[in-house]
Amino acid sequence: xxxxxxxxxxxxxxxxxxxxxxxxxxxxxxxxxxxxxxxxxxxxxxxxxxxxxxxxxxxxxxxxxxxxxxxxxxxxxxxxxxxxxxxxxxxxxxxxxxxxxxxxxxxxxxxxxxxxxxxxxxxxxxxxxxxxxxxxxxxxxxxxxxxxxxxxxxxxxxxxxxxxxxxxxxxxxxxxxxxxxxxxxxxxxxxxxxxxxxxxxxxxxx
Length: 206
Description:
Blueprint: E1 20-23, H1 27-38, E2 43-46, E3 62-63, H2 71-78, H3 80-104, E4 115-118, H4 122-139, E5 143-146, H5 152-155, E6 163-166, E7 170-171, H6 174-187, E8 191-193
Parallel strand pairs: 1-2, 2-8
Antiparallel strand pairs: 3-7, 4-6, 5-6
Helix pairs in contact: 1-6, 2-3
């Protein structure tokens, strides 16, 4: 926030009628608004707080396609086909976001740095390795296991019991990314209004 503070929209005028109203000005809302506006729709984004005050500007800026639940856990709960579909969707989302940043020339310090995931116990290392074998076989997942004896060259510490390096993960400045998406949306004709909480939605006909 020191370099990219949250924005206000003083005296913003809310139009009486638009083709689409988007609730929330985070990444998802701005992406939806930008897509609709470039398709020729009139779009209004309503944000309850200052623009960028939520998680969009306060996350760690890590981009990765692995979920908190392991692949094997997903298979056990939902079946192999669903687990594969979920992971492929995650991989597609990362590729799309990185492509969007490059195409829109959003200066948000995007770096394809990879990520080290440390094992807190030797059993965790073994579980990561087992899961990786499945991910490589099913999805062609790009990662490698790093034993404890070699992890210092990755992260400069011997604290973990080895770990996994995920090569396609990236990092960015989340507040700059949000500001860039906001800028592209507004230049495409989107009206964005801060401090305008949505209190109700009413259905009329279809």
